[in-house]
Write a structure and sequence with these properties.
The protein is of the alpha/beta class. It folds into three domains: 3-9 and 72-161 and 305-342, Rossmann fold (3-Layer(aba) Sandwich); 18-65, no CATH class; 165-297, Rossmann fold (3-Layer(aba) Sandwich), CATH 3.40.50. The chain contains eleven helices and ten strands.
Amino acid sequence: MTTGVVLLNFGEPSEPTREAVVPYLERIFYNNRFLDGDMPEDEARERSRELAERRAPSLIEEYEEIGGSPLNPQARAQVDAVVETLTERGLDVTGYLGTQFSDPTIADAVAAAEADGVDRLVGLPIYPLCGPSTTVAALSDLNDAVADADWDVPVDRISGWHRHPAYTRLRADNVREYADEEGVDLTDDDTMVLFSAHGTPTHYLEEGSRYDVYVDEYTTALAHLLGVEDYVVGYQNHENRDIPWTEPETEDVAVEGDAERVVVEPVSFMHEQSETLSELDDELREELESAGTELHRVPVPHDDPRFADLLADLVEPFAADIDPEYYQLRECQCAAEEGAMCLNAPRAE
């Protein structure tokens, strides 16, 4: 039995052109259209187009400054690494990349898997912290793509996985190694340790998303492994709509502090992308250095071989036809449809 493993991702345009960026942004805004309230589909699409046109120039400039987004190549490498790891474990798997808002799309991944004749699909979003517009939406898109293809294939879905102990250790080791290379003492009174998470509209939290809870529990665990008692958490918000987002903002807490240096760990990301290379490395660095503060931004360990092992651990019970609860996976409480499994759900009493 061949298992098709679909690693689900956000995606970013490979070229910093208007032809690539505007449709990308339009898809993002339309996917979150209800944040503007109920409106007919044609109005929602027009609104999404307006927002995309407004945001595109600055985003194109960001992509040009960073030399194009490396997200998709890094994501493809992760697919290859997971397939190699699972194959070494004796499992028959093929791998696919499906992104929510760029090419290859999730529908493209499903079409490729169907053409290859796989016997089942496993969808795994590569978002460290489960959120509604990322993890939950990507899994829903996978279901829709299979339904639209009219393909009768079993689909297993894995959502939240930040509680995997290997993941917290991996990130802690990465932060510690980077600090050692930079000659920075994380416990120094003049050093601010800043965990930067991707922001989300508070609407999602009010609707029941536990994203902020996951950010809090994960950063607490990470700080313990690092031996850091004093740290701050900030959110990288994208305020393209006039709606409230998570607080405090990363830039605010970094700039308003009185530390001589700021060490930023981008906890929401498992790829280098515009949010790390532009928002942190360029924009935040400029703000801090103008105030005489050093910025030390921890690189994302996207190619750490331990990450491939971790992802393989999550896929293994489905590919090997083992009860996923044996691997501590439980029914997800965040997914829009029943059937998704995660490490975040509580044990049944």
